[in-house]
TrEMBL record:
Native organism taxonomy: Eukaryota, Viridiplantae, Streptophyta, Embryophyta, Tracheophyta
Name of the protein in its database record: Uncharacterized protein
Domain of life assignment: Eukaryota
Keywords: Membrane, Transmembrane, Transmembrane helix
UniProt entry tagged with the keyword Transcription: no
Transmembrane stretches, start-end: 255-273, 279-299, 357-382, 413-434, 441-463, 475-498, 519-544, 550-578
Keyword RNA-binding appears in the UniProt entry: no
Gene Ontology cellular component list: membrane
GO biological process, one term: GPI anchor biosynthetic process
Length: 706
């Protein structure tokens, strides 16, 4: 079976011609006995490494501990090998280098044996000692002959794979795939094999076939997830390696003026945000204690019932304000060593900040507009309420009491329903006039709530205010719905009586049943008046259903706007507009060269230990690693799908059928809001310290990562 080897090289190594006598650091990802991935994270000058072998092992061990646990279980960060750059034969290279290049070839030796007894390329001193003590049994030595006209990764016919030592045997045929990648960095780009917001769904069948179990037991040839994870951790590995090396070399730290200015800036920002958040914290705790006070329990219960939407949105906003310093802290640094995980964690933190910022900006715009136009808004509300009451409700009831649209209704029933409706409307209009002086204060309350807590809380308060102001319409609609639904149910039962059928509620079906003559006579006497009075009841039911549906539609529209404000990922949209590379969706390879590498019929005696390799061909492919990127719709769709998951075609169909049968339509869409967290009771001073320390720690983590 032909062996396969993929070498993942960073773009820096593929574009720099001055990297002589360098060391390669990264991971060996072994999938099977015939497939191996060599992921080069970074390179380091051989002269920068101390002569102490134990010190190098401590640095590698400390760097490996900084990596995610999922990567440590499958691959270990280690010293991969050595990289030498040989000049062309124009007279600049020494004889020893030429001999070295002629022995090693384009990608000299990649050995799995514990000692380099084959004579391919011996490392001396530190590297030889480390190779003997290393846990890994792999080693790679890369040598490339470059010229001034060609870059390192522009392969020609002289760039070839000489041979590989694999499990103690010399492999002459090996397919080599060299993949050049751009090192992922936080805030720049990274690689991903799946959609940004996708999550694997584990849906197992009841019984799996035997061949499926056998297929799952097989070891995959290509573990791309581990490779992509190591690529995303390459930048963090380089940073951790340098940081640990500097800590072992010296304990002092050089401070510059820029670092001092940055520290002072973050310190002032922490004080300002901590003080502002503490003010919000004290205000929120005051409202919470006041609402939970047992002095006026009936006030608390009434406010919870009347201002239900306001309390829910106020709780969501309060939890976001109280918990933001906890969201900002990064306790587990190993979980963000991977750029992909760090990007997702950062966006999750930024989503709370961006939602609060946009909500407060919209709330201030709306609140200031209401404060500057309070009188005109009051005048518009008075006129609208007057026209709605006189031109729609009263005129509609009077019209229904006569001959609406030429339909001849029952005069007595229409008069009773109309007079009851007019009396309820008149009573509520009288109460509305008495409460008219409070409208201006109500508008100011909405404005202050929007400025203080955001547009969502003020919009929820508007929904509750509309619901309370139209309570008389809701009551009339409930009463007429009760009459209409009972009338429909009675007519349906009497119709089944005439057909000789009876409803079986347990089996949800109609069964045959033998009724007596008396039952048929009573049924006929009841069926006729109910059927003749149905048009009168239906007209009033349709009128109040349309009116109530229009009011509920306005409330649902405001509720929809609140859900959109909560669900929209503002941080992701802004980052996508600035840097789209931070939202990858799958990888692909841009092939630069695909050909064969011709081997010599004979090789050096010292290399192959008096063995000869017949003339054969090994494939050599060079490609660049590229990424696909998510579109704006793919970013927004998962967020909106989660929020509006309760709305479906079946729910709309059931609501339409319920209207025809006399059931009340729902007054809410049932949209999902961010889940409120447990209420946090913490002293004001401790909360200020928590806010201050979270900002300072985030600044230190940012400085350390850079």
């Amino acid at each position: 079976m032909k062996r396969k080897c993929r070498i993942w090289l960073p773009k820096q190594l593929a574009s720099d011609d001055d990297l002589t006598h360098s060391l390669l650091f990264g991971w060996f990802v072994s999938h099977s006995s015939a497939c191996l991935d060599v992921v080069v994270a970074f390179i380091s000058d051989e002269n920068s490494i101390s002569s102490d072998g134990s010190k190098l092992q401590d640095v590698l061990l400390g760097t490996n501990k900084k990596m995610p646990s999922t990567l440590r279980e499958k691959a270990t960060f280690t010293l991969l090998g050595r990289y030498d750059l040989c000049l062309n034969a124009n007279g600049n290279s020494s004889k020893s280098k030429k001999d070295n290049c002629s022995k090693a070839g384009a990608f000299g030796s990649l050995c799995r044996c514990s000692s380099l007894s084959c004579g391919c390329h011996r490392v001396d001193g530190l590297l030889e000692d480390f190779k003997k003590d290393s846990v890994s049994s792999h080693w790679i030595h890369m040598v490339h002959d470059s010229s001034s006209e060609r870059r390192v990764m522009e392969f020609d016919s002289s760039s070839r794979l000489h041979h590989i030592h694999w499990n103690g045997e010399i492999v002459s045929q090996c397919d080599v795939h060299v993949i050049v990648y751009e090192t992922p960095e936080f805030g720049s780009h990274h690689f991903s094999l799946r959609f940004w917001n996708s999550s694997p769904q584990m849906i197992a069948p009841l019984k799996k076939p035997k061949w499926v179990d056998d297929l799952h037991k097989r070891q995959p040839l290509n573990d791309m997830e581990t490779v992509i994870l190591s690529l995303n951790c390459s930048s963090a590995a380089k940073t951790a390696y340098k940081k640990i090396s500097m800590q072992l070399d010296t304990s002092s730290r050089n401070f510059s003026i820029s670092c001092l200015i940055s520290s002072l800036t973050w310190w002032l920002l922490a004080i300002i945000l901590g003080s502002l958040s503490s003010l919000y914290h004290s205000l929120i705790q005051f409202f919470y204690v006041l609402s939970s006070s047992p002095i006026f329990p009936w006030v608390h219960i009434a406010s919870r019932k009347v201002l239900k939407n306001t309390w829910i949105n106020f709780r969501v906003r309060s939890c976001q304000i109280l918990y933001w310093p906890i969201f900002l802290q990064e306790n587990d640094m190993t979980s963000i060593s991977c750029v992909e995980h760090a990007e997702k964690a950062a966006l999750q933190r930024h989503s709370t900040w961006s939602a609060m910022a946009v909500d407060l900006v919209l709330g201030n715009l709306i609140g200031l507009s209401l404060l500057f136009n309070t009188e005109s808004i009051c005048w518009w509300i008075f006129n609208f309420a007057k026209e709605f009451t006189n031109d729609i409700l009263r005129s509609g009831c009077v019209w229904l009491m006569g001959v609406p649209a030429g339909f001849k209704l029952n005069t007595e029933l229409a008069g009773v329903l109309g007079m009851v409706s007019l009396n309820v409307i008149q009573i509520w209009s009288t109460l509305w006039v008495l409460m008219a002086s409070l409208i201006i204060y109500l508008i100011r309350v909405v404005a202050i709530m929007g400025i203080t807590f955001g547009a969502t809380v003020s919009a929820a308060f508007v929904i509750d205010a509309i619901t309370f102001a139209t309570f008389h319409i809701t009551a009339l609609h409930w009463a007429i719905t009760l009459v209409y639904s009972h009338q429909i149910q009675a007519l349906a039962a009497l119709w089944r009586l005439f057909r000789g059928r009876k409803l079986n509620p347990l089996r949800q079906r109609l069964d045959s049943y033998g009724y007596t003559v008396k039952q048929h006579v009573v049924g006929s006497l009841l069926f006729t008046p109910l059927l003749l009075l149905l048009p009168t009841t239906s007209v009033f039911y349709i009128f109040f259903t349309i009116t109530s549906t229009a009011i509920n539609s306005i409330c649902m529209l405001i509720e929809f706007a609140i859900s959109v404000i909560h669900a929209t990922p503002y941080a992701e949209i802004l980052i996508w507009l600035v840097r789209r590379k931070r939202f990858p969706s799958g990888v692909w390879f841009e092939i630069e060269r695909n050909g064969f590498e011709v081997r010599s019929s004979t090789v050096s005696k010292s290399v192959l230990d008096e063995h000869t390799i017949p003339e054969k061909k090994s494939s050599l492919m060079v490609s660049n690693l590229r990424s696909n990127f998510l579109s704006m719709g793919q970013i927004l769709l998962p967020h909106y799908t989660t929020i509006y998951s309760g709305i479906s075609a079946s729910s709309l169909t059931s609501s339409a059928r319920g209207v025809l049968s006399g059931k009340r339509m729902p007054s809410k869409l049932g949209l999902d809001l961010p889940p409120p967290r447990p209420w946090m009771h913490i002293p004001l001073r401790e909360y200020w310290t928590l806010c201050h320390s979270s900002i300072i720690s985030s600044a230190e983590n940012k400085e350390a990562s850079s």
